[in-house]
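Recall the central idea of this unit: under ordinary conditions, the amino acid sequence of a chain determines the structure it adopts. In this exercise we apply that idea directly, starting from the sequence alone.
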Amino acid sequence: MSDYNKNIVEDPLAVYSTHFYDVGQQMILLFGGIGALKLQSNVVSDFDLLELTRRGIPKKAILGLIKKISLTIQELAGVMHINERTFQRFNDTDFVKSEYSEKAIELARLYARGEEVFGSLDKFKLWMKTPSIVFKNNTPFALLDSSIGFGLVFTELGRIEHGIFS
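Accordingly, the structure predicted from this sequence is:
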């Protein structure tokens, strides 16, 4: 066996961990980084995301997210299933409840994944607001009011990434 072959990792888990790290780190950056999320270290696994969800996300980080992905508070409220006024009543430093934080994390994951697939956040944002036959002439964003809708959009991203056209 050559020295070159000794340095090759053949464990598929290594690939998945690397992929999560790339998308996961981009997702964290959409919130404004680990400082904005008030984290002690980077999020490197789904278990870290689970803990982040349970703890909640600071309102200020969620505001940073919606600014970067060009959403209004009204659009965010629709995705998170929270009254717009209720969300606005949180102080910027308050941690938003886990059920709302989970939706914000899913939104950030989707936009990070979309940026990866499209190669540009701006291209992905445009795609999210463009009606598609695949989604029965709805925009992909219009589906984000349910977890099933998120799944449909993630699935379509996978199809786009692999060149499968519907």
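The chain has one domain: 3-161.
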